[in-house]
Specification:
mainly alpha, single chain, 233 residues
Length: 233
């Protein structure tokens, strides 16, 4: 490796890392939180079997799982202004990523809810909980540990997918690498450096996932035993 290339990589590391911390990470977290709000609603509607709402939920999931994410980004950022709706690049990316991921997270949550033993729901009704209270106080807390590994995997994938935001002018991690590569004419080395930073982010998240999973297993056992005590009383 030449001295020139080494200097470029050293000088560019923080210039790529800082947008990753200031833009990529917030974009990922906001989009994921938005997706979870939508996903819970979509999953609960399907499990509750409310006919019209269930069909709307299924159509939503069908559309967002069946069309490319980059097309959804372009529709929201470039397409919406043609009907009079102007959205800045960053919020447009949050909306697009969140709506796309919600379709996948909803299916994960739906499967997890259905995996909760039917007896838990019956026990909740016996102690006087309403269907809504049963869902949000009994079923979802038990479904979440089941869904957590898949949901967190989707979060890790989202970190990498945020690189698509560069296509709608969001200056995130990959955009910064592209800009430096255009100035220095060293695309291979700089894109590898960007990949390394993505790998660092994903490695930290994977480590965090393992810690949280262990805690959720303990809490899940505790909540089930607690519900059993309430019902026996």
């Amino acid at each position: 490796m030449s001295d020139r290339l080494l200097n470029i990589l050293i000088n560019s590391f923080t210039k790529i890392l800082i947008p990753g911390i200031k833009v990529t990470i917030p974009l990922t977290l906001l989009a994921f939180l938005f997706s979870m709000v939508l996903a819970v609603m979509l999953a609960v509607v399907q499990v509750a079997d409310v006919k019209v709402l269930k069909q709307v939920s299924q159509i939503y999931i069908w559309i967002f799982r069946g069309t490319p994410l980059i097309v959804q980004l372009f529709i929201i950022f470039f397409g919406m202004p043609s009907i009079g709706i102007m959205i800045d690049a960053f919020p447009a990316a949050v909306i697009a990523f969140g709506m796309n991921l919600a379709a996948y997270n909803a299916e994960v949550l739906r499967a997890a809810i259905l995996a909760v033993p039917r007896g838990q729901t019956e026990a909740a009704y016996l102690i006087g909980l309403t269907p809504a209270q049963t869902m949000f106080r009994v079923v979802l807390p038990q479904a979440f540990p089941i869904a957590f590994p898949s949901l967190f995997n989707n979060l890790i994938s989202l970190v990498k997918d945020t690189s698509l935001a560069s296509s709608i002018t969001v200056t995130e991690l990959f955009t910064s690498a592209q800009q430096i590569a255009a100035r220095t004419y060293e695309p291979f080395a700089l894109y590898c450096e960007a990949a390394l930073i993505y790998l660092m982010f994903c490695t930290v998240l994977t480590w965090l996932q393992g810690i949280i999973e262990e805690k959720l297993k303990w809490k899940s056992k505790g909540s089930q035993s607690l519900l059993g005590k309430k019902v026996s009383v």
